[in-house]
Amino acid sequence: MPIIINLDVMMAKRKMSLNELSERINLTLSNISNLKTGKAKAIRFSTLDAICKALDCQPGDILEFRE
């Protein structure tokens, strides 16, 4: 898939663990893990909004398009 999810990179830059992000955005560990590993097929805008607020970043910092 040409959409790359860089959630792990942003979490590392912010020194935030999976558990901490899960608690901040009220999403299960398994759902965040699926996003982090690129296994997710979709993401809700409300989830993306919550992640961006928690990590103080823009959607483009998390999502990347590659041919």
From TrEMBL:
PROSITE patterns: HTH_CROC1. Gene3D superfamilies: lambda repressor-like DNA-binding domains. SMART domains: HTH_XRE. This is Putative transcriptional regulator. Residues 7-62 form the HTH cro/C1-type domain. One of its GO terms (molecular function) is DNA binding.
